[in-house]
């Protein structure tokens, strides 16, 4: 039987707020008017942080050649970090005509002989899905031969968006890894972190707090993850979805199959980090744990306040316009407010209904939810007298024209803004942006234009 | 000359240097003013490409996708998605040209690009660039050829003052500008096709628009047919020169496999002197030639004791290996992204069509690496010196302004490389 998931089922995800109201595929791509990555990219993102596994891309060079080493998914894995490596079958015309299966089998053997990973993910891509290479069969055979899990990932780019791909990646892990091993021990406070990829070390900003509380992260999907752990994930007491909508169907299925409840939260900014920790404690249902968490939260918040003091003056009376997408529309807004900035507007064009509601909640009645940020942001900067624009690269020119500071929130980030400590990183970056003379200087007219 | 290993006995690429044909095509179309590159395939290739170049050039990159999806992948022959794309693009912007190029998906399906393109009532140039064939360099070259074939009007007379420059994919914007300047100093009117020197040179313009700005204009391309002279740089550009010559029997063509180092720079100047009958160059050119000679002497001692690995596209390898060789550097290994007839002529002991895993396996053969930013991990692990060159370079800013060419760039390049070599030696002893 093919392990190909039913795409339609995933799109109709009942647990997804967005799809409840809108019976249409999330972000269905439109020819000539599309931005954003493909399903393959999404699948890779969701599984990539397993640094002890090889990620083998079965396709021509585009899929991997342009993308390896782009994501800074940090790991504590002591062996060679396989996420820093690119593996691809680089199929050629010959393979397209006569099938790339033989090459794939040999490629797996090669990886096993040279890198000894704890699992192999085999990603199908547009061309190899099209020519019908049977990656299910090859993975099954490879797993038998080499004695480790080999996971076929059916997320060729043409099935849809990055978001859908992440779901497909999650599905693959659920189907081929979860429940295939028993943990050595269990505790009453075992949780899985789902949808946290530890980009720039986000997860490490709060993981030590969970440790302090005695909450054990049994498995992750897949930040700083280990194959051994995700195979044991079915024994967790709680699934914690971090800042991601894309893996709700996975957690729903884990609830159905293994009875694991789930909660969804964000570790962005002070309030959300505190709320998140408390939510986990409450969901685990232990009064002692809740009390301990309250104490820890109070301590951490006080400590953060102390360290934020030098920034308070810089941010007092400062107004920001935020133009980003998804959960960032409110999570970054919340973080900015925690720093004492006033968020006068946030873009909700690319946000779900759920995200919009949360944005309204954080910004209050006065805050503007921009439906057409490209046009609105320039006007709002003037009207509200904003000092700072946080947006993707292209909006830089708007900021320069207005002579206000700019921070890129869509770029591949280098520092983590997660948790309490990450908020300090954000504060430092925004302070630097606000104090940087460059935004006024580059807009200066040339002597011969005056 | 080099001992070349072409045949790969590996069933896969591990840490590839190779980039795809569609990406090369995108970059070539970016050198045309107000062009919208339209990649035909599923959306991921386009998204990856956009991010890749945005990070490399630190510039917004215009590009769109035909966004082929599951249902379309089976039913459509390319017609619907391409026509829809053109419609949607024109709703938002008014490009001067749409640069339609394929990926593996529509090529596997066998889309009739020419048929669809012929029906589009919009200025459009199409090119087949499946990613399971060729690579970055050939994608650029095929696009250049398509631009000439489909746009340049045949002509019967020539304008002796007009010169067409056909640069290969690895020349940076500033390098193209420097070649143009040198030729212009001989009184020529130079047009580069494609021309990144004015589009991706890092200028701060009115970048609100979603289109490329700068670059050669469509009108200029159409009128290239009456140029008196054509200069191609890089083996990959020979085909483009050939099709351009077919547009006008009176055109003359000169080819350079690269323009790095003293001899190659001299030969370009010699040609220009012969063509114009001038008996000298500008004082500035003269000064820079002396400086390059001096740089060769100043750096020869250090480079002479350095064994070097060079990684990159074939045409780029040709120039880089040569200038290093001329200053005494021993290029013990060159790793080429793809095969090319140029490889035999490369000034290296050994040339390998391969990946960075192959380079790692040959670690005792070199002390210093000249290559893209994927080489950083390699250099770090193996404790080698590193000079960042080629695509991608996400580690450094200022890539459009890196100049290794002709007299001036050559001098800077040799100094930089020698300094890195010394620094590395200081660390390892
Ligand atoms: S769209 Fe298809 S071919 Fe392109 S990167 Fe995604 S999987 Fe690869």
From TrEMBL, chain A:
Coiled coil regions, renumbered to chain: none
InterPro entries in the cross-refs: Nase/OxRdtase_comp1 (IPR000510), NifE (IPR005973), NifE-like (IPR049939)
Domain Nitrogenase/oxidoreductase component positions: 38-434
GO BP: any one term: nitrogen fixation
MF terms (GO), sorted A to Z: oxidoreductase activity
Entry-linked NCBIfam families: nifE
Family label: Belongs to the NifD/NifK/NifE/NifN family.
Protein name as annotated: Nitrogenase iron-molybdenum cofactor biosynthesis protein NifE
Lineage: Bacteria, Pseudomonadati, Thermodesulfobacteriota, Desulfuromonadia, Desulfuromonadales
TrEMBL record, chain B:
Sorted UniProt keywords: Nitrogen fixation
Example GO biological process: protein-containing complex assembly
Coiled-coil boundaries: none
InterPro entries: ChlB/BchB/BchZ, Nase/OxRdtase_comp1, Nase_comp1_CS, Nase_Mo-Fe_CF
Pathway assigned to this chain's UniProt record: Cofactor biosynthesis; Fe-Mo cofactor biosynthesis
One GO molecular-function entry: nitrogenase activity
PANTHER family according to UniProt: LIGHT-INDEPENDENT PROTOCHLOROPHYLLIDE REDUCTASE SUBUNIT B
Stated role: This protein may play a role in the biosynthesis of the prosthetic group of nitrogenase (FeMo cofactor).
Protein name according to UniProt: Nitrogenase iron-molybdenum cofactor biosynthesis protein NifN
UniProt source species: Geothermobacter hydrogeniphilus
